Amino acid sequence: MTTYEWYLFGHLAGVFLLLAAAGISTGAGIALGRAKSPGVVVTLLDLQRISELVVTSAGVILVVLFGSLLVDEAGYSFGDGWISAAFTLLIVVLALDHGVLMRKNRQARAIAANHGPNDPISDELQARLNDPLTIAVGLVLGLSFLVFLWLMIARPGA
User: Fold this and answer.
1) CB–CB of 97/138 below 8 Å?
2) Which of 12, 36, 44, 47 has the fewest other C-beta atoms within 10 Å?
3) Is the predicted pLDDT of residue 99 greater than 80, yes or no?
């Protein structure tokens, strides 16, 4: 395998980790809307948090490291518009993920943990789980993968 192929393999491994984290987080988010007990909510929120913190972080490290190595190896420049856009979008996505979604996750988990595991879902917890901002951020994060995919395939301006 050539150096380029190794870098591409590392970059794609990171992409697959990011897709896995997004799938787990999205699936947990959908299940949260249907949860019937605070114990289930705590478990799903913990799953979502671990997925975002561990799997997303590992994926981002691989994507950035090997993507940066690929830029030079493939003859591109960090000044190319599609590369700058990808890095900018990555920063925005991480800010939304860790700054908004995970903060809302912690708040909902704290409410759920204050109830018995088999108690009914309180109105306060239901409102937190169905918060429009949380849902909107989740949708934006999901759609961001389509933008990343387009940037990496189309390489506009390259």
Assistant:
1) no
2) 36
3) yes
Residue-wise burial string across 123-141, b where 16 or more C-beta atoms lie within 10 A, e elsewhere: eebeebbeeeebeebbebb
Instruction: Domain of residue 65: give its range.
Output: 3-154
Helix (H) or strand (E) holding 70: helix 57-73
The mean per-residue pLDDT over the stretch 62-66 comes to: 97
pLDDT, averaged across the chain? 93
> Which residues have CB under 8 Å from 151's CB, separation 6+?
82, 85, 86, 89
pLDDT > 80? residue 158: no
Provide the whole-model pTM.
0.88
Q: Where are the beta strands (DSSP E) in the chain?
A: none
Please state, in angstroms and rounded to a whole number, the distance separating the CA atoms of residues 68 and 84: 11
For residues 35 and 44, the answer to whether their CB atoms sit within 8 Å is yes
Q: Indicate the number of domains in the chain.
A: 1
Distance CA 119, CA 32 (A): 15
